[in-house]
Amino acid sequence: MPSPALYGALTALLFTTVPLSPSLSVSSPSTPSIPSSPSSFDAPQAEARGTVLAARRAAAEGIDFGACPAAEKLPPSVVCGTVRVPLDYADPGGDRIPLTVSRVRASGPATGRQGALVFNPGGPGASSTYFPLAAELPEWRRISAAYDLVGYAPRGVGRSAPVSCQDPADRVTGPTPAPTRPSEVYKRERIARAKAYAEGCARRTGAALRHYHSLNNARDLELLRAALGEPRLTYLGASYGTYVGGLYATLFPHRVRRMVLDAPVDPTPGRIWYHNNLAQSEAFERRWADFRTWVAKHDAVYGLGGTAREVAASYERVRAELAARPAAGRVGPGQLHGAMLGTGYDDRLWPLRAAALSAYLKGDPAPLVAQAAPSEDPGPDAGNGRAVYTAVECNDAPWPEEFAVWDRDNTRLAERAPFETWDNAWMNLPCAYWKAPRQRPLDVRTGPGVLPPVLILAAERDAATPYAGALELQRRLAGAALVTERDAGTHGVAGGPNACVNGHLERYLLTGAVPGDVTSPEMTPVRRASCAPHPEPDPVSLERRATKTPAV
Length: 552
Prior knowledge:
α6 (about 240-250) links the parallel β6 and β7. The protein contains 17 helices and 11 strands. By secondary structure, the chain is of the alpha/beta class. The protein starts with a helix and ends in a 21-residue tail after the last strand.
């Protein structure tokens, strides 16, 4: 999913939001093993040759920037264009698809400009065409003085050859259940739904479906670099965007200038993506406990209980009442739970969600409906983000193809981590019945001296991309530096409320400097630094809330 730190700061400028849903992803030792992946030198030669040829063409064609289409909802200060990339890199002379690109020029003097900074916000399935608006934010002023800020919609997203898996009118909108111990009847219903969704992806996208995967996203990034006229890439990737960055660094190490990887996923080939999703579900349980502990600290404001256990009981009471009588006829347990999953991504949502629960139990369902109800008019692009997410993750790697494996692993995990486990399983279950061929995950790894220093940013209690992934990524990218926001869990920290983290980010992008060596627990020198956590959010009751409600 997109990084809340940057995305949230830009929401007020865009007047739009991105839904928070399970995305990336403790593996079970009983889960089938995944074949070992090839090294970068074993990458298919046809795709490698095709990428070189396509990059030369992209460099020659460039990008013709002009006014952004109205659909992008961007101000005149931002310009847009397209870069055309091969649908299939093994056939660079065949069909090409357009990727939407946005840009704002560096605001500083020409002598201090450092080229383009390209941002991928994650997902898979998210666009960063809003990224140039960061130039208006105080935290980005010095960076935007030195860099053109460039966003783009990856293949399949928005107007970039969009992927579709179902008619928007066919989406399940609510009210829906969200059982933590699903019955056999419910499981069969979800299996049927997953099969239908996978079939819809194959039918509506056709033969092109097989080409929407992370390796091609990394190759597309190389063409974007070339089309921008940049000899080397300066890149900021958040969440899933860190995996794209890791692939790029492995495939095109000589093209990396500077690279920031914020809230990294674990790139270990055997964890892409089934095991990573299990790890995410386990981490969400810890973050859900963090939220409940915070609410209990402010019982005088919310009245939901003075302990985390009591807050959980209040939440279960709301779930039970919504199961019996959905709020406004649209918000049932499924919609409630979908809204509450946001607390695991971004602690700025904590006051809003706690206030909505409190108001509901006092007889006012309106705040909960406002935050949890599905849109009554989702628009023609509804479901595109989920379609791209599903296509990329299902195409990227082998998945268990027997529901018995999913059932066993998620039933065991739900005993200790019930909050997100089954929601995450249902989100990804179409991958068990996928129609397109699978990729073999690339072994993200570089040797000493191959890359310039890479800067990794991570929050210690991140649930969407657990912290172990940051440690693993640092081990795999020789010379990388890791900056940790201790005892914090908002997903994505670049440009957020932590001045210490932002200082490391700015210093690196402007000068290339990374933290110096410290001694790791293994007694080996590593480049690491840590920052104290940003302040917890202030509690806000509905009686004291601002007249302008923050985006939800």
